[in-house]
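User: I'm writing a tutorial on reading structure tokens. Could you give me a worked example: one chain, its sequence, then its tokens, then a sentence or two explaining what the tokens reveal?
Assistant: Sure. Here is the example chain.
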Amino acid sequence: MKLITEKWQDFAQNVLSTNDDYITIFECCFIQNPLTMGLVKCNQTKEQNMQYVLDLGRIIHALNPLLIYIDQKDISFTFDKAVRERPKEWSEGFINYYTNQGLGEAQGYQGVQGTVQVLQERKKLESEIYDLLQMDKVWLDNSDYDLEVCRRKLEKILE
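And here are its predicted structure tokens:
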């Protein structure tokens, strides 16, 4: 947490000091990655995880960030879809990561269903954090998995 926090601080300071007019896009590293480490891997408390991401939000506040959270409502369907579409090695590694350490291990979760339970708990925490973040943000529902519709929604947001 300390190392990642320092990296976010360095990034924010660098951007603020360069005065360059550019856009940086980060995929999953603001909420998902910290919770994957804090909750999924280390089973830290809800409060620790929330505080960590909220602190990261304060670090980048001066950058005027826009958070776009792309959501699929049915986590079980989404995960089953990913399992069907990706190599078996991916799903085995993912399931192992989500159930044999941290929250999954502490709760005794196993297999695909256990992985979905961890994903549901992570999403619940992500939603709570999203509501508390003091920044521009958009929750984009992509439950239909329609890439073209999602792309148009993203374009409209970025206008």
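What the tokens reveal: The chain has a mean pLDDT of 94. The helical segments are 2-18, 32-41, 46-60, 75-85, 88-99, 102-107, 111-132, 147-158.
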